Amino acid sequence: MDITTIGIDLAKLVFQVHAVNAHGKVVLKKQLKRNQMAEYFVNLKPCLIGMEACGSAHHWARKLQSYGHTVKLMPPQYVKPYVKTNKNDAADAEAICEAVTRPNMHFVPIKTLEQQGILTIHRIRQGYVKARTAQANQIRGLLAEFGIEIPLGIGYITKRVPELIEDASNDLPGIVRIEIQELLEHFKHLEERVNDCEKKIVCWHRKDGTSKKLEAIPGIGPITASALVASIGDSKHFKNGRQVAAWIGLVPKQHSSGGKQTLLGISKRGDSYLRTLLIHGARAVIHHSVGKIKPTGTQSWVNQLAARKNKNIAAVALANKNARIVWALLNHDRDYQDNHKTLRVAA
Length: 347
Fold this sequence. Notes:
The protein is 54% helix and 11% strand. The chain has 13 helices and seven strands. 29% of the residues are buried.
């Protein structure tokens, strides 16, 4: 049984394996339990293994690579067109096995343990931020039922709510005051957890030279820089900066046909977390550059764009530009220069 290519449909307990030989003939269809995976592949002759980039994919990719196999991860949406029949584990494994051999397939870089570790802190922080926002909205909504309004802004929760609880002139019942106090304590706990995660991210950022290099770009701070470094990994996987911008979803979505080019809003593909960080960072640059007497190169460029279009378009454009700059710095191992000009060779 000469196996050259294997497709694995990952799961929690039972893994479906589909293998073919050099001629594309199916030689194996097998189910493996989690505790059988290592024993089976460590005794198998090195071959090409394809998997979808889903839960636990990077863990299994590193493990199978340590056994001598060549492992490639693919986005699930690019594998789906190769499913020929109804969806099941066997059909998914067969589709993965076929998709991994396609010459134009897009592959996902395999993350290291360190990259996964810092991204885990980012995901935990993101969860706490969502929970904190939900808690603030609940407090705001409950108080509104009694005619008490809190100004917009997350900072007003800790400033105004304690005063409202102690204010005897409002119509809050005693039982509600007690519960609102409990919700406020929960809100403060979530805020502490967010701050704790941010301290860990900044600590990692200060120890990583590549992440510190990206911090010099306007609109990119320690959180965005560390997330970009850990998510992109090896910049050689991208041909140019535009591919990084497209991977994050910051390029126009197309709906073209018959030679007519139609460009819509941004595609919003890829990692929404990275896209959000880049766009919010760009908004901060625009906010702080307005009214400056002598704006820097980036600030001057974004101010002119905001004057012609609007601030939202300018923010997305700057986020796109920053994504390209990130690729250039990582790929060429350079430091950021705000007034850098590219020299074009005359044809």
